[in-house]
C-alpha cells in the first residue's frame, strides 16, 4: 500500500510536470522520457494492484481458516464439556453400583443365614418324620401282636368257660385284660382307618390327574393324525398337479414340433382331406396314446397305495415315526424330481 501511494504520488508529479512541460516551450526529448517513466510507473502500479488483490485473497482465506479453527475449537470445547459431564455421570453410576453391590452382598449374607436356618429346620423335620414312621411301624407291630393276643384270649376264654366253677378269679382278671386290649384295638383301628382314608383321597386325586393327561394326549394324537392326513393329501394333490402340468407341457411341445414340421398349407390340406377344421386337427394331434393312459393309471394306483400305507402306519403300534418319515420323504423327492422336469420342459418350450 505504501508503494502504491508512492507510485501514485510520482504519477501525479509526472502528470504535473508533463502539463507544465506542455505549456512551456521545451525540447521534445525530455517529454519522451517522462512518457516512458509514466508507462513504467503505470506498469508498477498494476503489479502492485495485482499483488494487493492476491494478498487480500490470501488474507480472506486465512481469516476463513481462523474462523473454521475457532469453530473447531468451540466444538472440541463443547465435546470436552460433554465428555466431562459423561465422566462425572459414570463416576456417580460407579459409586451407586458399588453401594448396590455392598447392599447385595449384605443381603446375600442374610439370605445365606436364613438358608442355613431353613436347612436345619428341614433336617429337624426329616428327623421327626422318621421318628413318626418308626412309631407307626411299632404301632402296626403292636396291632399284629394285639390281634394275636386276642385270638389267644378267645381260646383261653373258651377254656375258662369250661372251667368256670374252678377258675372264677382267673376269669375276672382275663376279662379286665380283654377290655384293655379292646380299647387299644379300637384306638389302633381308628388311626388306621384315618390313614387309609387319607391314602384313598390321594390315590383318587392322582387318578383324576392321570385321566386328564390321558384325555389331553388323546386330543393331541387326534390332531397329529388329522395333520398327517391333510399333509399327505396335499402332497399327493400337488404331485398329481405337477404330473398333469408336465403332460400338458409335453403335449404342447409335441404339438409345436408337429406345427414346426408341418407348414400351414400342409395343415390346411390335411384338415380338408379329413373334412375337419384346423383346431379339430390340433385336438386330434393332442389325443393321448394308450401307453400314457396306462402310465397315469399306474401312477394313480401308486398314490392310492401310498395313502393306504400311511393310513396303516398311523393305525399301527409304536414306534412308526421313522417309517412315516421315509414315506413322506419319498413323496417329497418325487415332487422335487417332477419340479425339475417341469422347469426343464418349460425352459425348452420357451
From TrEMBL:
Skewed-composition ranges (Basic and acidic residues): 1-18
- Kindly indicate where the leader peptide sits in this chain: none
Q: InterPro entries, per this entry?
A: CNTLN
Q: Which GO terms describe its cellular component?
A: centriole; centrosome
Q: Where is this region: Disordered?
A: 1-36
Q: Which GO terms describe its biological process?
A: centriole-centriole cohesion
Specify the domain of life of the species encoding this protein: Eukaryota
Name assigned to this protein:
Centlein
Taxonomic source organism:
Aptenodytes patagonicus
